[in-house]
Design brief:
With about 140 residues, this protein is mainly beta. It has a single domain, classed as Nucleic acid-binding proteins (OB fold (Dihydrolipoamide Acetyltransferase, E2P)). About 5% of the residues lie in helices and about 50% in strands. The chain is built from one helix and nine strands. It has a five-stranded mixed β-barrel. The longest helix is centred in the middle third of the chain and has 4 residues. The N and C termini lie far apart (about 30 Å). One of its GO terms (molecular function) is DNA binding. InterPro entries: NA-bd_OB-fold (IPR012340), SOSS-B (IPR051231).
Length: about 140
């Protein structure tokens, strides 16, 4: 699978926390939390998934109103990192998200990559490794089944 604009697609099960913005993926929004304000910016958390895993996805500003559950979104140059102790996938300053379809996408709700405890790799401090699963599914969004 390739993304328009170059770079190969990353499956959610393969993402790891990083300060770098280079995650290109396609996912479906399953649920969306309420909009809150962080300073001057609107923000809301969504539950998103692909066929390999789920993740908490952070929407900012206009994105909060632009996307709804059921939307299939393509993320370019995304970042998976901590925001207020929550591990979230987001577009960040250099990334972008666009709606590319709706409803017709295979997905799984587990594992949720935001519900895993990550620790620095003892052999490489710039890398994180999975230490433990905090919860098999999202603790923020109730299960769909």
């Amino acid at each position: 699978m390739y993304v328009h604009g170059g770079g190969s697609m990353t499956y959610l099960k393969d993402i790891v926390p990083s300060a770098q913005t280079n995650i290109n993926t396609q996912l479906i929004l399953l649920d969306k939390g309420r909009i809150t304000m962080e300073g001057q910016n609107k923000t809301c958390l969504a539950l998103a998934a692909d066929e390999t895993a789920a993740v908490h996805f952070q929407l900012w500003g206009e994105e909060c109103d632009a996307f709804e559950p059921g939307d299939i979104i393509r993320l370019a140059n995304g970042i998976f990192s901590y925001n207020r102790n929550n591990l979230v996938l987001r577009a960040g300053k250099r990334g972008s998200i666009e709606k590319v379809g709706e409803f017709t996408m295979a997905f799984v709700e587990t594992p949720n990559m935001s519900e895993i405890r990550w620790v620095p790799d003892p052999n490489n401090s710039k890398k994180y490794v999975q230490e433990a699963v905090i919860s098999t599914h999202s603790r923020i969004f109730p299960r769909l089944d």
